[in-house]
Write a structure and sequence with these properties.
The complex is a heterodimer of chains A (118) and B (107). By secondary structure, chain A is an all-beta fold. Chain A contains no helices and 11 strands. With 107 residues, chain B is mainly beta. Chain B has no helices and 11 strands. The chains are: A mainly beta (118), B mainly beta (107).
Chain lengths: 118, 107
């Protein structure tokens, strides 16, 4: 059973960089594509971007200028960096596995709450 | 971006009821639609993909239908474990987008 576990600081100051890591267990990250998705408190889900098993990435245009998603194959981890954060970036951040065949998400991490505040 | 509109936003129902949730896309997405269930404090869980394909392990009381711009998720007989929020997601084009959610509450 694949497991995804997000980790990182729960509090980030405005204008700084949010950095999160997703550790994947029971499957090689090179076998699938991976995504980050966020959910502001009480609001809907927002897709942040994908990193494909090829190593290339696709981002939501609304966040593209501030986002980088990368992989560390030696650690079986997927990482998210979001620069110049504001209070609007406060959310639960999820990593999720893209289905092998289509662009829906068949496995999710438990999520981690990141609050942007001074 | 493709906008996904769910209705109703909240639904009150009783155990045993047949429940239908609707999701409308702002342009045609063929059958590239998924449905998720989310419980408080938990991650979403995939129920349906490609509009009508049931994910492995999901009870058969869940079903999906539709194509183009109109889709629905039906729970044939609501169970206590089904009280949750449901989201649709289109994956026809980037950026991937989700609906605003439908909360199914106990009547």
């Amino acid at each position: 059973q694949v497991q995804l576990q997000e980790s990182g600081p729960g509090l980030v100051k405005p204008s700084e960089t949010l950095s999160l890591t997703c550790t994947v267990s029971s499957v090689s990250i090179t076998a699938y594509s991976w995504s980050w998705i966020r959910q502001p408190p009480g609001k809907e889900l927002q897709w942040i971007g994908y990193i494909y098993h090829s190593g290339s990435a696709t981002y939501n245009p609304s966040l593209k200028s501030r986002v980088t998603i990368s992989v560390d194959t030696s650690k079986n981890q997927v990482s998210l960096q979001l620069r110049y954060v504001t209070a609007a970036d406060t959310a639960v951040y999820y990593c999720a596995r893209r289905s092998a065949m289509e662009s829906h998400f068949d496995n999710w991490g438990q999520g981690t709450l990141v609050t942007v505040s001074s | 971006d493709i906008q996904m509109t769910q209705s109703p936003s909240t639904l009150s129902a009783s155990v045993g009821d047949r429940v239908t949730i609707t999701c409308r896309a702002s342009q045609s997405i063929s059958s590239w639609l998924a449905w998720y269930q989310q419980k408080p404090g938990k991650a979403p869980n995939l129920l349906i993909y490609k509009a009508s394909s049931l994910e492995s392990g999901v009870p058969s009381r869940f079903s999906g239908s539709g194509s183009g711009t109109e889709f629905s998720l039906t729970i044939s007989s609501l169970q206590p474990d089904d009280f949750a929020t449901y989201y649709c997601q289109q994956y026809s084009s980037y950026p991937l987008t989700f609906g605003g959610g439908t909360k199914v509450e106990i009547k």
